[in-house]
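Bug #77: duplicate submission created two jobs. Keeping one. Sequence:
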Amino acid sequence: MRVQRDEHTNHPTTTKWKIISSLIPNLKNELSIKEFFSVYRCTGVASREVTWTTIKKPDRQTVTNEVWIIGHPLYIKEISWEDFIHSLEWIRILTSCSNIVYFTHPREINLKLPDYVHIKELDECFEMYLLSADEIAESIISFHSSSLVNLKSLGYDNVFFYELKSHVVNPRFRIRVNIIYEYFREIGISAINYHPADNPSS
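Kept job's structure:
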């Protein structure tokens, strides 16, 4: 992970570099370096497009009856721990899935979650893990990880975001989070359906 500044702005963007070798059959023995970065408007890099040339998702991946959550330590600054756990519970209810796998963020260490959530730690970014995986979950969900943008660009259509209700988000982050949600919708990433009692417009 390296932090650099976009050439067009003064805002820092997070860039994940990974050398990919023979992950996909049509790459054969060639090496390809792929860049993953934040494309959110609030970081000042909205005009910078993600371009995918040789790297696409594998042709065949077995779909499992799981829901994968791309983790993010929202509870540090953005929402309370109680609201974070409440959100995980709603994801379980809304997806009607008892097999929840939570892929931790690098900043999440010794994380303890409810028993219905299986915690998985990676030594690579989620995108690289998924590209080399033989299996894929029925749904991949995140709160506002830029990995969703990258996965959508790779051709994955089973990606969704869980939209936090505005009143549970720290006011310092509320505008930023709402802009990210707007961006998700613009590129075709949908929010998972709400239970009527938990509708953000209510």
